[in-house]
Amino acid sequence: MSKDSLDQLFERLQGEFDIEEPQRGHQDRFLDKLNQSNGTIAINRKRPTWWKPLSIAASVLLVAVLGYKAFGPQPSLEQQVVEIAPEVSQTEFYFANLIEQQVQQLKDEKSPETAQLVDDTLAQLQRLANDYKGLEQDLVNGGDTKIILNAMIINFQTRIDLLREVLSQIENIKNLKLNNDESFTI
Where exactly are the structural domains of the chain? Predict the structure, then answer.
């Protein structure tokens, strides 16, 4: 066929071409008819649509996890310290119990003669506790772990030594008062 005969063919068939899209499901109906006439099974070329809902669900889950990480509850300072150095919690529990017992004993020994000593000691203990919180913050912020852990232990030991010394001084004051009372005659 020459180019002229093709041009003439298209001119003659002008306006008779089917330019409409087939109806929905046309391909499926065509494959069904083809399968019935040949007795063969054609592969359905529809792609599964399960990936779309799955990708949407994964996106929502990712946004939820990132939102929780960014805006969710933050771990406390103590929890962060335990994550960095788990042995701190055991040590702190031991020392804190010992210190609490001695503080209670100190408060029980408070009298008019020892009131100033007890109050000063409690104030000093509060300063040492604040220093300890600062050491915990330094540990969380990424300071030298060994040095900070050593300083934390020294802080506890200092508090215990302070309490023992003050309790010893209170005992001396009580003994001195008792001796003065015994030697005083009417």
Answer: 24-73, 77-183
